[in-house]
Amino acid sequence: MAQIRSISDVRSTAELEEIAVPEWGDESTTVYVRALTAREVDNYQLGLMNQPKNERPHVTLARLRHANAKLVVMGACDEVGEPIFGDSDVSRLADQSNKGLAKVAEAIQRLSGLGDFAESAEALEGKSETARSSDFTSE
Asked: Which pTM value belongs to this model?
């Protein structure tokens, strides 16, 4: 086992996964997705927030329009991890089957460790220390 002693010891490998998306073609239609870097996740999440002018600093509004399509643009790739979509494709992706778009976006979220998908995967792999059932005890 290698121990991390400095930033030069950190080596990330690209996680790729091929997803079946028959909603975007036929039964043989697939797309590769990849895990996003921490910087890409930050940029994605910051892009979903908006701090209106003339408001207190703690006021933030969510801008969720085409959120899944934007995520797919960032994480859909070819078999070596190169992007297959660009920012100009967001609107056209948003016009596609939501079931297919959600399936691809969920895979990117899971691979990237985002939100509930990361927690679900962690629990399924047995890495969760508590089962949260204690949160729902009856008195």
From this structure: 0.71
Q: What is the tens place of the pLDDT at every residue in 15-45?
A: 899 999 999 999 999 999 999 999 999 988 8
- How many domains does the chain fold into? 1
* pLDDT at residue 70 tops 70: yes
60 falls within a domain = yes
* 3 located within any domain: no
In a domain, 95, yes or no: yes
Q: Which of 124, 74, 71 is nearest to 102 (CA)?
A: 71
3-state SS, the chain, equals: CCCCCCHHHCCCCCCEEEEECHHHCCCCCEEEEECCCHHHHHHHHHHCEECCCCCCCCCCEECCCCHHHHHHHHHEECCCCCECCCHHHHHHHHCCCHHHHHHHHHHHHHHHCCHHHHHHHHHHCCCCCCCCHHHHCCC
> Is 86 contained in some domain?
yes
Tokens of residue 54, six digits: 């003339």
Domain that holds residue 19: 15-125
